[in-house]
Specification:
Blueprint: H1 3-23, H2 31-53, H3 56-78
Helix pairs in contact: 1-2, 1-3, 2-3
């Protein structure tokens, strides 16, 4: 893994995490937590999909954004509802 791929995964994950938070406004964890979880999901998704399929940059970007969006959404549904 090179630094360029890692940066692409991080940025795509952050974008995906914030997009996921925007789509689920009522359950959003806030921009900071959405960004952190998205970045973690982006690197995870990029590594899982990029390695076995050798998906290239576009596949890596898509997988990172998708998994980056899913991490905050899943976390928001697992979070105990306050009130």
């Amino acid at each position: 893994m090179d630094i360029t791929s890692l940066l692409i995964q991080l940025v795509a994950g952050v974008a995906g995490g914030n997009a996921g938070g925007y789509l689920a406004k009522a359950r959003s964890l806030g921009p900071m937590l959405n960004s952190v979880l998205g970045a973690i999901g982006g690197v995870t998704g990029g590594q899982l999909v990029g390695t076995p399929l050798d998906a290239g940059m576009v596949g890596n970007l898509g997988a990172s954004a998708l998994v980056g969006a899913l991490f905050p959404l899943v976390a928001s549904f697992l979070k105990k509802k306050s009130g």
